[in-house]
Design goal:
alpha+beta, Ribosomal Protein L24e, Chain: T, two-stranded antiparallel sheet
């Protein structure tokens, strides 16, 4: 699996190690990835994702996984997160439709 956050798309960056003598050698900046289980309120289940620590803070700030997915753009999400977003949107639409019928 790629070293990429499934929610924000944050990935490996490259740069230089620069010594005191100004010698440059290539290096990689790896994202701080964590494997976490997040609870989806609309789907009533836990979702296991590999996300960056910054994305975890953003998910908590926005009020949970469902709120994050609804606000997120499709291009930054991984394929798995896009499918999850579509499930959440469909579930919320079905729930709001049943509330209107009652």
């Amino acid at each position: 699996m790629a070293r990429r956050c499934e929610l924000t798309g944050k990935a490996v960056l490259t740069g230089n190690n620069v010594s005191h003598a100004n010698n440059r050698s290539r290096r990689r900046f790896l994202p701080n990835l964590c494997t976490v289980s997040l609870l989806s309120d609309s789907l009533d289940r836990k979702i296991r994702l590999k996300i960056s620590a910054a994305a975890l803070r953003t998910v908590e700030h926005r009020g949970g996984l469902d709120a994050f997915l609804l606000k997120a753009g499709e291009k930054d999400l991984s394929q798995r997160a896009r499918l999850l977003r579509r499930e959440v949107v469909a579930k919320l639409a079905a729930d709001s439709g049943s509330d209107l019928a009652a």
